[in-house]
Amino acid sequence: MNYVIMDLEWNQSNTGKEKDAKILPFEVIEIGAIKLNSDRKMIGEFNELIKPQVYHEMHRVTRRLIHLQMEQLEQGRPFSEVMARFREWCGEDYIFCTWGPLDLTELQRNIRYYDLEPLSDGPIRFLDVQKLFSIAYEDKKSRRSLEYAIDYLTVEKDIPFHRAFSDAYYTAKILALLDEKVLGSYSFDVFHLPKDKDSEIHVIFDTYAKYISRKFEDKAQALDDRTVMSAKCYLCHKTLRRKIRWFSPNGKHYYSVSYCEKHGYMKSKIRIRKTEDGAVYVVKTEKFIPEEEVAGIRDKQEKARQQRKIKRSSKSRNHQNEIVSAPGGSASS
Questions:
Q1: 208: pLDDT confidence band, cut at 50, 70 and 90?
Q2: What is the sign of the dihedral through the CA atoms of 76, 78, 81 and 86?
C-alpha cells in the first residue's frame, strides 16, 4: 500500500454574494501531493493549479498566505480535469494522508459540486499526520502547525511553506519519521456517512474503541437506538452492568460508566453531531479507566443534575411571574 500525502489550497468569497457561496464555501485552487511507498520512500509527486469557476477574485487572506495571483490560476486546468489526473496518479492501493482533518472534506465538497464520481460512498479512512505528530511527540490532544513540527523534528526547510505542494512535501517528511506503531491511529472523514446499519464504523484501537453511526433524523431518534446506547465490553463483547447511567452536561455530549468483571471500568462518551441537511449522527468512544476516575465522572453527573434542577426552578419562577403579571393574574387561587 502507498501513502498519498495531499494538501489543498482553496479560495473563498470576499462578500458572500456569489450565487454558489453557500453550496461551495471553499473552492479548491491547487492540489499538491507526494506519494510514498510502503517503506515510506518518495516515489512520486503531483502539483496542479485549478482554474477558478466560482470565485474570480482572490480572498485577501488567501492572497496574503499563498502568494498566488488570479492570472496564474487562469492558466490552470478546470477542477474536473485536474481531479481526473489526480485520481489516475493516486493509483489503486493507497491511503490518504493530510495535515489536519479538513482537506478531504473540502475536496469531496468540490467533487460533489462538479457532480463527479465520489471518492467513496461512505467514511474514508485516512492518516491525520497532525494528530499522529501529537500522539508521537506530545500530549495526544494538542494540534501544532506544520512549521512547528518541522522545527521540532529539525527537518531542513528547503522550500517555502503555504503552497499545496510544499505543505504536502513537509507533511510527507514528518510521516516518514514517525514510528510504525503510531500509524495505526488512523482517522475517518465522514463527509459521506455510513449509508445503513451494516455500514456503520466499529473499530478498536490500542487504548479505546470508536463507533460512527449512520444518519438519524434527530437527536431523539439517535438516543433511542440500541447500538448507540449499548454497554458492551469491546474486548470480550459481554453486556455490562451500568455503574453510571447516561447523562449529559450540555445536551451534546453524553457519558456513562459500565463495569466488566474481566477488564474493569469502561467509560463511554457519545458526541451528537449535525449533518449539512439538519440531521444528526453519533460518534461514540469507549475506553477502560482506573477506578479513581469513576468518582470524577460521578461528580460531573451530580453537577449536571444540579444545573438541571436550577434551570427547572428558574423556568418555574418565570412561569409564575408571567401568571402574576398577566391581566387578572394572581399568585394564589
A1: very high
A2: positive
- Identify which has the larger pLDDT, 330 or 290: 290
Q: How far apart are CA 268 and CA 230, in angstroms?
A: 10
β-pair partners for 25: none
What cell numbers appear for 145 in the block? Answer: 502547525
CATH superfamily, domain 2-188, is Ribonuclease H-like superfamily/Ribonuclease H (3.30.420.10)
Phi, psi angle pair for 325, to nearest 5°: -80, -15
Give the span between the Cα atoms of 50 and 73, in whole angstroms: 6
State how far the Cα of 173 lies from the Cα of 298, in Å rounded to an integer.
44
Strand partners, 10: 28
Sheet strands side by side (includes 124-128): 42-49, 27-36, 2-11, 94-98, 124-128, 187-189
Report residue 137 as a C-alpha cell: 511527540
Quote the CA–CA distance of 45 and 165 in Å, as a whole number. Answer: 8
Question: What's the CA gap between 231 and 234, in Å, rounded?
Answer: 9
Helix (H, G, I), strand (E, B) or coil at 280: strand
Rounded mean pLDDT, 44-60 = 92
What is the longest distance spanned by two Cα atoms in the chain? 84
Confidence of residue 22 (pLDDT cuts 50, 70, 90): confident
- Count of other CB atoms within 10 angstroms of residue 103: 25
C-alpha cell at 86: 489526480
Tell me how far CA of residue 244 lies from CA of 220, 247, 257, 272, in angstroms.
20, 8, 5, 19
Contact between 177 and 153 (Cβ < 8 Å): yes
How far apart are the C-alpha atoms of 168 and 59, rounded to whole Å? 22
In a 3-state reduction of DSSP, which class is residue 268? strand
